Amino acid sequence: MKDIKELDNLITEVSHEFRSPLNSIVGFSDMIRSETHGPIHEKYREYADAIHESGLFMLDLIGEILNPFNIEATKKSYQPEKFDAILLISEITNILKPQAIENKITIFNNIDDIVLPVFLNKISLKQILFNLLSNAIKFSKNNENIYISASIESSNLVIEFQNSSKDTTNQNFEIGKNGLGLFIVKSLIEQQSGALKIENKKNTGTIVTMSLPFKI
């Protein structure tokens, strides 16, 4: 019991150390985008929005990572929630938009209006989308495009990322050759009985498709 209590105390301390600066980032970015001390340029407002959303995302992610080590948290069963998939995709796109702009990459959303409320593990889907879009940006060249499409197919949320490589695709964009990101994505998708497919096509680009079953 003593070891368990010490572990809980350590996790609580680590969580506090991570959350404190992130809460400051979220708070200050909120002040900037709210123009608390005067008007700002629209472009800076977009950056402040991205910083704010990134801070909130990291706070959620820290909670998700540390909770499994918290004894009380492990007693709670997996609880999916109802949320708007379109808004979540837009949120992740906005977080990574500055990175895409820096690399002269344009992101286009092609999302069906029917992709509305889904019933899934929201934080897991956030992690999946963040990693997949990050990889799409990383493996795209300057002045290329990334297309994101989403639809509902047979009670599955299907999201596709495609880059617009005009020459040849990067064959290293595969699970096992791409660091930890895709392993995490694959694991999170499989935990929810979903599927991940990666296709490399010359003159078309890399197409990454994820599918997750859900309840409305």
Q: What are the salient characteristics of this protein?
A:
single chain; 216 residues; alpha+beta; Heat Shock Protein 90; 5-stranded mixed beta sheet; two-stranded antiparallel ribbon
Structure, described:
This protein is of the alpha+beta class and 216 residues long. The chain folds into two domains: 2-75; 81-213, Heat Shock Protein 90, CATH 3.30.565. The protein contains five helices and seven strands. It has helices at 2-33, 42-66, 85-102, 122-138, 181-191; strands at 81-84, 106-111, 117-120, 145-152, 156-163, 195-201, 205-213. Helix 3 (85-102) packs parallel to helix 4 (122-138). The radius of gyration is 19 Å and the shape is globular.
- Note the beta-strand portion: 15-25%
Helix count, DSSP H or I runs of 4 or more residues: 5
- CATH topology tier name of the largest domain: Heat Shock Protein 90
Runs in which pLDDT lies below 50 for 5 or more consecutive residues are 69-77, 166-173
- The whole-number mean of residue pLDDT values reads 76
Number of strands: 7
Structural Rg: 19 Å
Q: How far apart are the first and last residues' alpha carbons, in Å?
A: 42 Å
Give the overall shape.
globular
Structural class: alpha+beta
Largest sheet: 5 strands, mixed
Give the name of the CATH superfamily of the largest domain.
Histidine kinase-like ATPase, C-terminal domain
Spatial ordering of strands, largest sheet: 2-4-5-7-6
Any idea of the CATH class of the largest domain? Answer: Alpha Beta
Secondary-structure element pattern, one letter each: HHEHEEHEEHEE
CATH level-two architecture of the largest domain: 2-Layer Sandwich
Helix content: 40-55%
Quaternary form? single chain
The domain count comes to 2
